[in-house]
Amino acid sequence: MDRKPFKGDKEAARMHNIGVAHEALAYALPIDGPEHRTELAQAQDFYKKALALDPGEKYFAEPLQRIEVSLQYAANAQRYTDETRQWREARDKRGGARAARRAEAEAPPAATAPPAAVAPNAPAAPRPRPSAAAPRKDPAPVAAKAPAQVRAQDGLASSAGLALPLRNGSFESGLDPWTVDGKGVVAPDARRGRVFQAAATGAATTLSQPIGVDVQAAPAATLSLDYKVAAGEGRLRVLVAYDDATGKRRTSTLEVTAGDAPGAWTPWTGDLLALRPRAARLKEIRLVAEGGTVLLDNVALTVR
Asked: Burial code of 259-276, b = ≥16 C-beta within 10 A, e = fewer?
């Protein structure tokens, strides 16, 4: 392989192309990993070399801006991953302590020592005769043992009483804690880092996340997102599961788009306090895409 450098704009183009390769490799790696940031840094270095060789070429300046944004996303993803790990470790520690206390409370009583042996041929002690005046005492009834509590498996039930905000709405750390029903993946985007891609050309794709947010006394609660129809005539709606003031579970639908042709990114905001009956506690957010390929980004729940 000839490693002799090109001259002028050819060498700048070669530096740029190497940077493109490193950037593409970075987006194929987990965003919260050190390899992702290493590849982005190498791409940034080659982009700077290309711009230094040909300062007047605006095409070489745009990738540097994109890399800066991607590095910020990577730092945020790493911070989110660390915070999630710490939260899970604390939760497991609390769960282990509760299990230990429960096991200690349910442990059987210690076995009593056997009675002393009676010497052979020793006369048996006379049995005391009950007093005629003494009333018979029946043993006190034993209370039935309460069944052990089973940890709830339903995401909505498990969020009861907990403060669980909407997390990872930009999908920079992957899919978790979202779940997907249908066809959908987290995909790289040249300008936005990572986005969710719902391939809902046939059946619908539903993206769900259980939450636990009290809004009964909140003056405002909004859900915002950015969407883009990439193929077909994409339809998008939001299903909100919540409890009303009486504790009854409800589900309401907010329509984002009834069918758009492929186009640019579009912001959307919905007022969750406008749901009827009024929501007291938000339990789950579901994003349902149909009719085409729909991209989602920057899903956020804001309560004031």
From this structure: ebeeeeeeeeebebeebe
To which H or E segment does residue 40 belong? helix 34-53
The mean pLDDT of the chain is 82
Cβ–Cβ under 8 Å, residues 76 and 55: no
Which residue has better confidence, 152 or 287?
Answer: 287
In the chain, % helix, strand, coil (3-state, to 5) comes to 30, 30, 40
- Burial (CB < 10 A; 0-12, 13-18, 19+), residue 105, is exposed
Model confidence over 212-263: pLDDT tens digits? 999 999 999 999 999 999 999 999 999 999 999 999 999 999 999 988 899 9
**What pLDDT score does 154 carry?**
47
Residues 6+ apart with CB under 8 A from 230: 197, 262, 292, 293, 294, 295
Q: Rounded to an integer, what distance in angstroms lies between the CA atom of residue 218 and that of residue 245?
A: 13
